[in-house]
Amino acid sequence: MTDAADRQLAAQYEAFPYPARDPREESKRLIVGSPSHLREIDHWIFGSRRPASQPLRALVAGGGTGDGTIMLAQHLAWAGRPGSVTWLDRSTTARRIVEARAAARRLDNIRFEAGSLLELPGSGLGPFDYIDCCGVLHHLPDPLAGLQALASVLAPGGGMGLMVYAPHGRTGVYMLQDALRLLAPAEEPPAARVEVARRLWKQAPETAWLRRNPWLTDHLSGGDAGLYDLLLNPRDVAFTVPALEALVRAAGLRIACWVEPVRYDPDAYLPDPKLRARTAALDPVQRAALAEAITGNMGIHIVYCVRAGDPVPEVPWDNPEAVPVLREMEGPTLAKGLPRDGTLPVTFDGLRVNLPLPRLAPAILQRVDGRRSLGAIADELAANGIAREQFWRELPALRRAMEAMNRLLIAAPA
């Protein structure tokens, strides 16, 4: 499936490996996000039922400079969990960077493979329990062929985390891409093209829609690699909610979760009862499409997928032995900062949503530490005069708010 655009894409990522990363920064912080956070994989792919002791075989297809690879490998290492992460990409420049990042962290659970994800069928790689493909499908000549290639090495019961561009939040990007096709033709060397793009951005008038789009920052803070990837990429296809769902379905998969779930719930933005009566008649894809259309600020879509024929295990929220965990939050700190009006304000790319919380939310959250089980938390509250029945009655309301934010999850069983 190699064509002129594909060859230009390969040259781009050799000249400007993406995203720009300095291995010396690894001592300062771990870059985290979605998809491929280990707690998200446990929760959304495996329903928090796959034992943590079972080795996880993961693939990061189109791994670039390694954000997803390093995050997942580090999470496995910190948790003392068995498994390995296979990084796959065509860029030798990106490989040098991710190998240096892994060395800086002394990670020995990463395997590096050179090649294209389109070559996975028959490659001998896999099968994999989890596959990450972040920011790749929208650059392929045939995204469906790419997704089918990934599915060919997915182990039974496994799943994928995908990220693709979304059109509405990228308002302004495609206009400047059109302009740069005229000013900096794709046949020119990448260095020359990025120099023209810098000049154009400095002189683009205030009416240019990208200047009015505060949700995209690659051209501002991502260096030359970010500028090139946003405005000079030779192939860039954005997917609406229905288009992405159709792509996933055509590959024999189904979406288990849109991240973050609350962003795709139109009722989070529409308090009018008459409108909610109409949203109630929509199917899940239509509801997500409505949320995308009315918010206008989604520049990407992140989804977790499983095989269409595989059941998604129900997360055991009613199991007293299940252990709740918070993603990148400390329970006591979160509980202390909760507003007293019974709601949790959340902002997604400038859009503010107030999520209702039950009365016991602070008492429960301050005890979520990744060790206490739901039953243990209920016991502690009972010792303080709060009936266990009240805990189990209010837990679903807390789950609806915090799980929808992709923040309160259930850990993998030991």
Automatic annotation (TrEMBL):
GO biological process, one term: methylation
Domain Methyltransferase type, chain residue ranges per copy: 61-158
Transmembrane segments: none
CDD domains, A to Z: AdoMet_MTases
Keyword Transferase: yes
UniProt name for this protein: Methyltransferase
Source species, domain of life: Bacteria
GO molecular function, one term: methyltransferase activity
Keywords: Methyltransferase, Transferase
InterPro entries named in the record: Methyltransf_12, SAM-dependent_MTases_sf
